[in-house]
Fold each of these.
Amino acid sequence: MKIADLPVPESAKEIIIKSGIAELYPPQEEAIKAGALEGRNLVLASPTASGKTLVAELCALKHVLEKGGKIIYLTPLRALASEKFEDFKKYTTIAKKDGRRIRIGISTGDFDSTDPWLERYDIIIMTNEKSDSLLRHRAKWMDEISMVIADEVHLLNDAERGPTLEVVLARLMQVNPDVQILALSATINNVDEIAAWLKAEYVTTDWRPVTLKEGVFLHDEIQYKDGDSRKIEKKTSDSAVNLVLSTIRSGGQTLVFASTRKNAVTLAKKFAGEVEEVLSKPSKRSLEHEAQRILATGERTRISESLAELVKRGAAFHHAGLGGGHRKIIEDSFRQGKIKVLTATPTLAFGVNLPARMVVVQDYRRYEAGYGYYPISVLEYKQMAGRAGRPKYDKTGEAILIAKTPDEADYLLESYILARPERIWSRLAVERIMRSHVLATIAADFAHTEQGLYEFFGRTFYAHQYDTDAIKGLIAKILKYLYDEEMIEVPGDEINATKLGKRVSELYIDPASAVIIRESLERKPVCLTELSLLHMIAHTPDMGPVLRPYSQEIDETAMFMEEHKAEFLADLPNEWEDTVAYEQFLGEVKTAMTLQAWIDEMSEDQIIERFRVQPGDLYRTIENTKWLLHATHELAVLLGNKQAIPQALGLEARVAKGVKKELLPLVRLEGVGRVRGRIIYNAGYKTIEDIKHVALDELTNLPLIGPRLAKKIKEQVGGFVKKETWEKLETEDQWKQTALTEY
Ligand SMILES: Nc1ncnc2c1ncn2[C@@H]1O[C@H](COP(=O)(O)OP(=O)(O)OP(=O)(O)O)[C@@H](O)[C@H]1O
Ligand SMILES: [Mg+2]
C-alpha cells in the first residue's frame, strides 16, 4: 500500500513521503485495514521496529485535520516523549481547516500544575504520570481530548508504571466515552484481552523490517537462534569488551544494557579504556568537542564530569539521573556515530530508535531489596533486544546475551531467545498504589459514592481481568483509612474530598506521606530545625529507598541520631524490639545528614566520598526532597502552620540549589549555581544591588566567570554593558567561556 493512496490529507502525506517513506510496512497496512483511519479503537501489537509510530502519526493527522480534534500521545518515559516530539514536529507546517498551523506540544514536568497553555495545542506528547496529574487537577482542556494514543501499552504489566496507565485510560474513557483509542504494544500473549478492555479491534503481526539475529555468547562464540554461529576475536578476557570491539571493527555501534545505574557507569568506564585505543584522530577530535559541550551544558556535576571524560574516549552511559541537556547530547552523538558504545539502564529499552547494530544484554537478572535476584521477563528482554537493527540506521541487527557456562547458554536460549513473551497482568490492586488513585477519583470528581468508585474501578484493566468484586474489599479499606485521616467526608451516601484530601491528590503524593507530614508538623518538637524537616521528608514513603549507612557508619549515625533526638518529628524505634524499623530510621537519618551537607555547601566530591553515595542516588534524593518540600509547604499553608510555612519554602529553595541561605539571591541568576555563587559572594558581592554596581571586569577577574557569563549576569540584574568594554573583554579571555550555565 502506497502512502500516496491513503485517505489522509495531502499535506500530511507530502511530509511523510518527503521524509523518505513511500510505502507502508505490512503491519501498518493491516492496521489501516482494521479501520484505524476510520476512527475505530485499535490495539496494534507488533514487533520492535515495525513502524507502529507511523500508524499513530497517520491517525493523529487525519483526526486533527478532518475532525479538528485534540490528541494526547502517552509514553511511559521522558526519553521516549522527547523522541516522539521530534517525530511529530515535522508536521507543524501543515495548516488546519481554520487556517492555523498544527501545534505539537510536549509536557512531562511539574506534577502540581494544570498547564493551561497546553490548551492551544492539537497533539500533546506526555508521560503517563503527567497525564494522571493533569486529570487530578481536572485541567479543563483535558475534557476536549478526542483521541488517545497509548504507546508501549504492554507496560500495563509494570508494577510502577502500569497502574498509572490503566487508571489514565479508564478516566479518559469515562470523561469522553467516544474518545478514539489507539494502543501500541509489543508482541504479547493476550492482546485480545487488552483489546476487549478498550473495546477495540486488534492486529498482531510477527513482521520486522530488519532482521534481528538473537544469540548467546559463550567463551568466544555467538550461538544464534537459527543454528548459525560466529567466532569473535578474543582481544581481552572480557566477553562484553570483545563484542564491543568486534562491532566497532565492522563499523557499527553497540548498546549495552546494565541492570542498575551504577553498573551502567562501571561498564562504560571499562569499555572506554579499550575503545579509546581504536579511535581515529578525527574521531577523537569530534568527541573532544562533544565532551566540551557536555561540560558547558546544564549543571556541572560529578555525573557530567565523568560523562565528559568517557565521551572523549568514545563511550558513554545513559540513565534517568542524567539531566535533559546531557541526555540529548549523548543520544545525538550516538545517533551521529561519534560515540561507539553506550551503556544504559532498562529505561532505554522502550521505543527509542538508535543506531545500535548490536545490543548486549549484560545482565538478565535484577536485584530487589527483600526479594534478592530474579530473572527479567521475556517481554523486557525482547524490548531491549529490539533496540538493535532499526530501519533508519542498520541493515541487520544482533541482540546478544552473555553466558558463563554451557548450561547457562542453554538456559538463556530456551528462556529468552526462543521463548514467547508472557501474558500481561494488571498490577493495580496494591494498597499503596490504590490509596492515591481512590483519593484522586473522589477529589477530582470522577466519583462521589462507594458505588461510583466501584463503577470507576470497574472500568480498569484489573476489573476486566479479575472482576470488580476482587477489588471492593481493598477500596473499602482505603476509604476507611482516608476517612480516619480526614481526607474524605461522608455526608449521607456521598463521599467528598476534604480540602486536605483535594490538595494531597493534586500534589501527587501518597496519602500516607501526607499523613506523616501533617502529624509531624502538629508535633511541635522541642526545637524545629532544618534537620527536623529533612528527616521528616526522608521518613515518607514517597522518598523511595533511603541512603543506608554502611557497617562502619552505623555507630556514627546512631550517635548523631541520639544527639539530635529532640529534633526528630517521629518516635525513635527501639533498636532491640524492632530491628527493621530501627535500621530504616538510621537510613532516614543518614539521608537527612547527606541533605544537610548538601545545603551547607559541602562539595559534591566530598559528599560522595564522605557518605559513600552514588552521584545518581544523591540526585534522586535531592529531586524527591524538593518535590516533597513543595508538598510540605503547601500542606503547611493549608493547615495554617505558621512556623513551617517559611521554613519549608526556604528549605525547598536551598535544597534545589544546594546552598546556604545567604546565597539564595545570587543563585536565582541564570548561570550562577552553588559554586559560582559562593565565589561571587566571597568576593564581596553579596546582593543583587552589589552586582548592579560591580564593573564587568571585576566579575571576569573571578575564577570560573568568563566575559559572556559576566555579561549575562549584568543583564539579568538590569545592568548595562558598554560595547567597548564588552569587545575588549571578549577577545581577552577565551578559555573561561566554556561553561555558560554552571553548577
Ligand atoms: N513504511 C516505512 N518505511 C520505511 N521506514 C519506516 C516505515 N515505517 C516506519 N519506518 C521507520 O522505522 C523505524 C521504527 O519505527 P517505530 O519507532 O515506529 O517502531 P515501533 O514499531 O514503534 O518499535 P518499538 O516497539 O521498538 O517502539 C523509524 O525510524 C521509522 O521512521
Ligand atoms: Mg514504538
Amino acid sequence: MSNLAINPERLWGELMETAVIGGTAKGGICRLTLTDLDREVRDWFKARTETLGCRVTVDDMGGMFARRAGTADVPPIAIGSHLDTQPTGGKFDGALGVLAALEALRTLVEAGYETFAPIEVVNWTNEEGSRFQPAMVGSGVFAGVFERDWAAARTDRTGVTFGAALEAIGYRGPERCGVHPLSAFFELHIEQGPLLEAEGRDIGVVTGVQAMRWYDVTVTGQDAHTGATPMHLRKNALLGVARLIERVHGIALANAPAAVGTVGMIDNRPNSRNVVPGEVLFCADLRHPEARVLDAMEAIFMESLSEICEPLGLTTQAEKIWDQPPVRFDPDCVAAVRRAAELSGLSTRDIVSGAGHDAAYVSRVAPSAMIFVPCRGGVSHNEAEFTSKEQCAAGAQVLLQAVLDFDRQLAERHRAAGEPRAAD
Ligand SMILES: [Zn+2]
C-alpha cells in the first residue's frame, strides 16, 4: 500500500488548467468567491470528480464534498482546501490543496485501492475573505463558529449578499452546512512563509495555528497649525502612534522567535500638510502560538498606551476587536503526516501556521492536521506565488500517505471495538 504514487505531471497539468479560470496577465489568478469564475471552476471540479465515480454533495454555504465510498459505513476522511483566490492571488494558495486531494483520490481509484472510510475531496467556500468578510466563512459555519444566516447576510462592496451571490451561481446546495460528520480532515497548503525554503526542508508538519488578536486604538490630541504652534505646546497624536508602532515591533522582538506584531493600518486625521494631527486611529495585530505569552504581550501593549501617550498630552481608547485562540491539531493526524513524510523519504520541520486556514475551524469538529510545502521567497497573496512541480507532488504524496495511514488506524480502532459495519 505504501507504493501507491500520485502522478506529478497530472497534478501540475490540472493546476495549470484551472489557473486559466480567472488567470491574470502577470501569471496569477483573480477568482473571487461566488463569481462566475468561481462557478466555472466549481463546475470543473464537479465534473472531474464525477468522472472518477464520486458523488458530489453541496451544502447551503456552497461547500462541496466529492465522495468515494469506503468499505465501512463510517464518516469520511476529508481532504481539500479552497478554490477561491485574492484579487491578485497566485496559482497555488488553496488550489493546490484541492487539486492534490483530487489527484490522491484518483490514485486510489486507478489502483482499485479500497479504503475503510469513505474519502471526500472538499472545496470550502470563501476562504479568502476578500469579497465577503470574514475569511474562512464556509468552514467557520461548518464548525459552528459563525451563524449560517449571519454569514449569508454579509455583503460585498456593491451591496450583494453572500446568500444572493451563492444563489446566483447555482451553488446553494440542499444539505445544511455542518450536518456532515467527518472522521478527519487533512489540508495541504503552501507555507506562505519563508521557513521551509530557508532551511531546505520538503514538508512542514503543521502542529497548529498561532493565536491572533487585533486591537483598534484611537489616540486623541489636538489639531493645530504646524507653523504657529510651538513644539512644547503640541498634542501630536501621530507622534504618539509613531512611538507605539515602534513599541509593537519591540514587543514582538522581545518574544522572539515565535511572536509577531504589526501595525498595518493607520488613519491619520485630518491628514493635512500644515496641521498637527489631532486624532489617529490604528490597528495593532499581535500573534503567538501560546495564549499565555500573548496575554503578556497584550498587557505590555496596553500599558504602553498611557506610558507613551500621557507625556505627550494625548489620550487613548483601545478595543480588542478580534481574538482567535490558538489551534492545536489532532496528535494522531499530525503523527500520520509525519510518518507519511518519512515513508516518502522527505525532510520535515514542525511548523505553527502564521495564517488562518479552513483546517483551523474544521479542527473544532473533527480531528485535523495540515501539510505545508515551500513557496518561493515565502511570497503569497501575490501573482508571483510559486511552488515547483516537484514540491507540489511531494505535498500530494504526503497527503495520500497520511490519509492511508489514518484510514488504517481508524479500521484498527473499529476492529478493536468490535464493530465492523458494512458500507451502505
Ligand atoms: Zn489559502
Amino acid sequence: MMKLRYSPASPFVRKVLVVAHETGLEGRIERIATKVWAPDTDVGDDNPLGKIPALILDNGEVLYDSPVICEYLDAFSGGKNLFPAGPARWPALRLQALADGILDAAIARRYESQRPPERQEPMLTARYANVMRRAMSALETEADSWGETLTIGQIAAGVACGYLDFRYGHENWRPGRPGLSAWYERFARRPSMQATVPKE
Ligand SMILES: N[C@@H](CCC(=O)N[C@@H](CS)C(=O)NCC(=O)O)C(=O)O
C-alpha cells in the first residue's frame, strides 16, 4: 500500500486524490491524516518542506509535491495519459501551473487573514486577491477550448474552482465567467470530484 500524507481540506491533496480516482488507484493508497500546523507535527519526517501532500511509496521512497505525485500515479497506472506526451504536454502542464497558482494565492491570502488584524498587510492581501481574480479570468478565456480529453490541467482547474467555493464561497467567482461556470458545473459531477469534496 502506498501512503498519502493527507488532510480533507487541502486542495493539493484533493488534486492527488482526483488523479487516484481517475486512474483507478484509489484503493491502493492509505491515507495518513496530517496536521501541518500542529506544533508536534511529524510531516517533516517525510517532506522537509513541511507540506502536504507527500506520497510514501512501497519501497519507502517519498514523492512531493502534488505535480510530481500526480505524474507518478498517472505513469504507475499506465493508461490514462493525464500528462500527455508530445505537443499537448505543455499546455496541460501550464494549465496545471495556472490552477496551482490560484491555490497558492488563495491559501496565502487565507493564512494572512488568520493573523491578528494589526499584523495583517493589506497590500499582500490585495496582491493575492488580484492573482486569484486574474488567473480565474485566464481560466475563463480558455475553458471553452478544453476538449473532452481529460488532462492534469483540467483536474487542477476543477480543484481550484472547488477550493474557491469552499473557502471563498461568499465571493462567488462565477459572475462574468460563463464558460468556466458551465464547464465546472459538468466537471464537478465526475465521480472523482464527488468523492473528494473538501471538508473542514
Ligand atoms: N506546491 C505544493 C503546495 C502544497 C501546499 O501548499 N500544501 C499546504 C496545504 S494545502 C500546506 O501543506 N501548507 C503548509 C505550509 O505552507 O507550511 C504542492 O503542489 O503539493
Amino acid sequence: MRYSSLALLRGALTSHRHWQPAWTSPEPRPAYDVVIVGAGGHGLATAYYLAKNHGVTSVAVIERGWLGGGNTGRNTTVLRSNYLFRESARIYDFSLKLYEGLSRELNFNIMLSQRGHVMLAHSRHDLESMSRWVNTMHMHGIDAALLNREEVGARAPALDLSPRARLPVLGGFLQPRAGTARHDAVAWGYARAASRLGVDIIQECEVTGFVRNGAGVTGVETTRGRIGAERVAIAAAGHSSVLAQLAGFRLPVTSYALQAMVTEPLKPRLDTVVISPGTGVYVSQSDKGEMVIGGSLDLFASYAQRGSFAVMQSVIAGTLAMFPSFSRLRLMRQWAGIVDVVHDSSPIIGPTPIPGLYINCGWGTGGFKAIPAGGWTLAHVLATGRNHEFAEAFQLERFTSGRFVDEAAAAGIAH
Ligand SMILES: Cc1cc2nc3c(=O)[nH]c(=O)nc-3n(C[C@H](O)[C@H](O)[C@H](O)COP(=O)(O)OP(=O)(O)OC[C@H]3O[C@@H](n4cnc5c(N)ncnc54)[C@H](O)[C@@H]3O)c2cc1C
C-alpha cells in the first residue's frame, strides 16, 4: 500500500483499520541467492538495491535483535559529504544525493532536513586549513563556504562568540546541503521497500557460524537453523570482526563505544549542525526540540552499548563551552553504539579472502550518512561480482598494499 494524504484521509474515515504491517516477518526458507547478516541501514539498503537495481529478490536479511536496533537507531543522524579525498568525497556525495530523493523513492518520509553543517574555527590555523578544505571540496564539485564569525553567529545565535569563550570562534566552514534525517525512518523505509520487492527480513535470529564448502561459504548457521546461500554479506558494524573470526579471517577493525545524549525539548534554538574541532563535540536540535549531543569515542575496545561517565562528562563540558546557556537544560537520555573503526577511518566494501563472502564495514563514527551508497555499492558487487567504481578504493587489500584513504581529519570526531 502507498502512503499518501489520500491514504491518511481514508484512514481517518475508516478508524485507521486499513493499515498493513510495513514489512512481513516470514519463517526463514532453506536457501536464498543472497543472505545479508545485519538489518541495520547498510544491510537493509543492500537488500533493497539488490532487488531494485539488479532484480535479485531471493534475499534474506538476518538480524539477531530488531531491525535498526544497532548503530542505525542509535546515531546522531548527521548527513554531510565534506570529506577531503576524491574517493571519499565521491562516495559520500553520491550518498547525500541518494538521500535527497529517498523519501520519494521509498514512499517513506525520512524527515531529511538540509539545515547545513558548520565546523567552527578556533584559531588562525583552523581557518587556514578550512580554506584549503573548502577549495578541495569545490574541486570535487561539492558545496562549501567559509564563514566569518558574524555569519557563524547568524546561523547559531546561542553560540558563545565572546572573546572570553574557552574556545573563541574566529569563523567556520559550512556545507549548506548537509543536515540530518530521521534514523529510524531510514531503516524502516528501506525495510518496507525491500520487503515489498520480496526480500525476507528475519529478526531475532543470530548468525552463529558459516557453512563452508572447501574454501568457500555456502550459507550461515543461525539460532533458527541452517540457511543456504550462494553469496553471504556481512553488514554488522561493531560486530564485523566477531563475524570475520567465525568465518576464519581477521579484519583491521577495532570496536569502540560511541555515545550520544539528548536534553529535554525546547523551542527552536539551533537551526544547523555545529561541530567544534577543539572539543570534538557536535550539537543539533531534533524536530522534537531536544538538543542532540555527540562527542568523542570511549577510547578502549568495548562491546558494551553504554559508554563511560568520564567521556560523557567531557562531552557535556565541551557542549557548555560552546553553548553556556544550555547549562540550564536537563539531560533526558544517554546511550551508546559499538562502532567499527579502521586505521584510515574509511570503509571496507567488497569481497573478503573467503570465496562467496562479502563485507561492508569500517564506517566507524560516520556510516549513517553513507547508508544509501554503502547499500548501493555492496549490492553491485554481490550481483555482478565486480566492485562498484565508487568502492574500488575501499577494498580490504589496502591494508596489505598500504593504499590508505586517510580521512581521520574529516571523519568529524576524534579517533
Ligand atoms: C552514538 C553514535 C552516533 C553516531 N552519529 C553518526 C552521525 O551523526 N552521522 C553518521 O553518518 N554516522 C553516525 N554514526 C555511525 C553510524 O550510526 C553507523 O556507521 C551506521 O549506522 C552503521 O550502520 P550499519 O547498518 O553498518 O550497522 P548497524 O546499524 O549497527 O547494524 C548492524 C546490525 O547487525 C546486527 N548483528 C550483529 N551481529 C549479528 C549476528 N551475529 N547475527 C545477526 N545480526 C547481527 C546488529 O544487531 C545490528 O542490528 C554514529 C554512531 C553512534 C553509535
